[in-house]
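Sorry to interrupt, but I need a hand with the structure work. Go ahead and set the record down below:
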Amino acid sequence: MHTKSKQAPSAGEETIGRRNFMGVAIGAAAAGAAAVVPFAAAAQGAPSPTPPTGRPAAPNGPPLGPPPGESLRPPGGANGPRLYRVEADIKDVEIDGKIPEDLSGAFYRVGPDPMYPLAPRNIPFDGEGHVSMFRIQNGHVDYKSRYVRNDRYKAQEKAKRILFPIYRNPMMDDPSVKGLSRSTANTHIMNHRNYLLSLKEDSPPAALDLLTLETIDPNYRFDGQLESAAFTAHPKIDSETGDMIAFGYEAKGFGTDDVNVFQITPQGKMVWSAWIKVPYVGMIHDFAVTQKHIIFYVVPLAFDKAQLESGGIHWSWYGGQPTYFGVLRRGGDGKDLRWFKGPERCSTHVMGTFDDGNHVYVDVEMSQYNPFPFMPMRDGSRWDPVKGASQITRLSVDLSKKSVKDYQMETLYPGFFGALPRQDDRYNTMPYRYGYLPCPDPDPKDKSKRPSACWVRFDNQTRKAQIFNAGEGTTLNEVVFAPKSKTSGEGVGYLMGVANRNLEGGRGDLIILDAEHPEAGPLATVKLPIRAVPQIHGLWVPEWQLPAKSA
């Protein structure tokens, strides 16, 4: 294992428009799906490139990152098991190093863990939601995992077969499940009113017990206040009030162009709701919230009715279509919404956002087009891993200029490619300084080999990057920040995330770093004796936010 730091070029040196993909080209496909694509994907027909060593180099750059699913490929190659499905309880997990005395709480993760082999034409995002928890207290760690026992899970458990065979396509469902929620509850988790909400953006949340992970309400609708048919996987917490700001797209039903955005207090009361229309029905996986504005970004990973009718998935990449950056005022009726037009691009996650007077800024992962190799190209073209590579990009508009019709783009950290950016979540709606990203080594010593996995800490003030390098044979999941205390400054605390040890059958370790000095290496490594369940996103809940007893 080795560590290093790197000075990132200044913001003005390069922009996304220059198509500069120097360094390791890796997009959301490799950084996000690598954590969730089981071997079953390839076995059941989901396309996934699987060269055994390095992948082709990006133009003028080192090899691409590992192909999607490599982190969960079981030992034994094609003869290995296709499913995992292990719910676990492990007390007092072995630890190398020492858990910091001021680190106490729970680290939650969720991802798709298919109950049955994926059907042909399905994609790896469609497995049933499996939640795991590392409970950290008094220097010790317990591990627990449970499936979300919602409508979908219980129906398939009873039938002992797959009943929802295609991602977000109700036309293909077994007739026996008509009227049931299709939610996989597999994408993100959120702490609300002492419930752990397990989220999938096409459905209402499932509410779990924060301590036992038992499912309490499989279709949680906020005491009947949720009007939208769907609930985002990425709600934001207001940095001043603690209110949850969230939305649902396709909010009036399957394929509709309606979006409902709303605000809910920590006590569960909905205090604001507005409805808007989008230019076209595309995936709105994340959004941005400042103290004054709501920002949506519409990309051409678009609803495909013909594909659905032929038995395919919900989305296809509609190449050549514009993107739209929409801004509306918080607390209003949505009639002030302004759409700013941009070129074909894709962004699925926000790192941070802020406004400065009439200027609005949103920092995102951004690729030139479709970042997912398993999402169909509507024109039938072959997926391009270089164009699908994501970099941290700043989108901005000046709202004072009524004649402005487009938004601006700037690449913040050229040479770093990756997805699933995070921040200190206490700064969701305020100006922020630090961001975090999983990425391959931007400067590998041996460019003939697959680059090792890293976590990087970005300093937006100095434009410097500090890198933790996990070394060979390891895949890193998304990294999450944990503050030292309620009052500690931004970025003062710990970084944590799960490492898959690929040379040990995918066994999982929880790595804990000093967030201010990630290059110094782990403070502690929590060593599971088994694979960790798959992950898309994670959440840290500090001790002061946990209930004393189960619900």
Remarks:
- The chain has one domain: 2-78+107-437+451-545.
